[in-house]
Write a structure and sequence with these properties.
alpha/beta, 7 strands, Rossmann fold, about 15% strand, globular, seven-stranded parallel β-sheet, 8 helices
Length: about 250
Amino acid sequence: MENFFDLTGRRVVVTGGTSGIGLAIAQAFLQAGARVVVTGRSATRGAEALTHLQPHGEVHFVQGDAGSEADAAVMEQFIRQELGGLDTLVCAAGTNRRMAPQDLTLDDWEAVLDANLKSVFLTSRALYPMLKDSGDGRIITVGSMMSVLANEASSAYAAAKGGVVQFTRSLAVSWAPDGIRANAILPGWIDTPLTRQARKDIPDLDERVTSRTPLGRWGKPEEMAGTVLFLASPAARFVTGTAIPVDGGYVIRG
């Protein structure tokens, strides 16, 4: 009988895989027996990520900006060379700039949209031929609870993450005939370097988050990994076009 959760030998790339949620997802894939490439803009953080990840399995780092068309092409060639193909793409690259909409500059807007949304388009387009050749390609994007909610300081981020979900659904429809499934996860408030800075910027944020979240705490990056591994596994062959909250119940509380 088939092991519905076997990921042994799967070839995986995680954009934004050098820190936070992306790093935790990369580690989980390695521990499940996959071969992994992580990407990121910083060579220093890439080296640190490799030091952290190498004890867990075969992992490679390619430096590049997921929001750059030229860097996406470099990434595609690197994956062909190192992995010989691709089965699963996880789009975890992203950033945020917290301010009121009227205070956003065009540079702020474009930086957030490029990192979070444009990167998903460029990466998935560049890697589509390999995912198609896999015969069982998976795309897992990292949206946010801001894909469906809003607050006063994250208008660009909400626009980008809402776009991520809709683009993921479009991929699910467009590429289903090619054997590719596309799904999103929607993390809630997760304890990462980005949200630690947010807690410094917004003094009452910790109380607001824990009081609204039914589980009563912030999430951990590694708690995103289980849903991602499921979506990449044989168990999820009939799952596509979904957006799954992984948020401790945050979005269900009014």
